[in-house]
Amino acid sequence: MKVLLTGANGQLGRCFQDRVPAGWQVMATDSDTLDITDASAVDRVAAAFQPGLVVNAAAYTAVDKAESDAARAALINAGGPANLARAAKRAHAGFIHISTDYVFDGTSKTPYVETDATHPLGVYGATKLDGEIAVMREYPQSIIIRTAWVFSEYGNNFVKTMLRLGRERAALSIVDDQRGCPTYAGDIAQAIIDMTIAGADGGIYHFCGDREVSWKEFTDEIMTTAARLDLLDALPIVKGIGTDQYPTAAQRPGHSTLSCAKIARYGIRPSDWAAALNSCMAKIA
Ligand SMILES: NC(=O)c1ccc[n+]([C@@H]2O[C@H](COP(=O)([O-])OP(=O)(O)OC[C@H]3O[C@@H](n4cnc5c(N)ncnc54)[C@H](OP(=O)(O)O)[C@@H]3O)[C@@H](O)[C@H]2O)c1
Asked: The domain that contains 112 carries what CATH number?
């Protein structure tokens, strides 16, 4: 299997490279070596490499910054995936693209299924939804995996931020009325590999962590895991606050849990995020 990977330096890109099965050949590209917004560069690279699979781990992921940088977010999150879908189709390759729970408004009381109506609340979610639509228009056989609350030992993420704040401060105030499922990037990478090996059908799939928490509850588990691994001198006090007490540029969904029932048909289980948190924090240590 020849895989053209974009966004190779991001959380998912790095985790994917760590898990490449024996015999697979990966051309790992980052924003310097392949800008996905450059359609002719994408075509040129795909035509030369002739991948059997294109995996798009590249995205504009700065949720709040996107509110004042909408054109750039759209170029990367909608234009880029469209370029890659076209190139994958031309190369007769599979295409796996990653999207987000932020395509939903978070008003559902039950976990979202793939066919639920979308309604993004901010620019990031809207551009990711436009990306999904563009991918399915260009190449309907593509696979789109919506995921949520991604963390890993790589890059910047909530776990690393909380660990830093936990070391610096005696008390933290964390939002307690937004709920979702943390997801380890390594488990998303493994799901991509498993779906490829299984020859999964094109379409949208949800994949996220196996247990729903609020950001405050997630922080509690980050702190106890860090203390157990001797990464903290003392446990900080973690106080729950409302979204209204922590204003951000982008509005976020209140309850964006995703149902992973559809992807389970390929034997793929939701991310065991507590176990992954432990091993991931041991690596950070
Ligand atoms: N992080 C989350 O909590 C979360 C939640 C739900 C869904 N997702 C989705 O999951 C996927 C992976 O996210 P992640 O957390 O691994 O993202 P990440 O760590 O922010 O990595 C994204 C990568 O995309 C690259 N990139 C940006 N613009 C590019 C361009 N024009 N051409 C090529 N590469 C470009 C970045 O490279 P540079 O740094 O060099 O620009 C970066 O390495 C994304 O589709 C994201 O939308 C993430």
From this structure: 3.40.50.720
Into how many domains does the chain fold? 1
Per-residue pLDDT tens digits for 120-138: 999 999 999 999 999 999 9
Segment 150-187, tens digit of pLDDT:
999 999 999 999 999 999 999 999 999 999 999 999 99
Name the pairing type of β-strands 203-206 and 143-147: parallel
**CA distances to 23, 184, 200 from 231, in Å:** 37, 20, 40
Give the bridge partners for 145, in sequence order: 98, 205
Residue with the nearest Cα to atom 17 of ligand 1?
10
Pocket of ligand 1 (CB under 6 A): 6-7, 9-13, 30-31, 35-37, 57-61, 76, 80, 98, 100, 128, 147-150, 155, 185
Q: 220 in a domain, yes or no?
A: no
- Show which residues are catalytic: 124
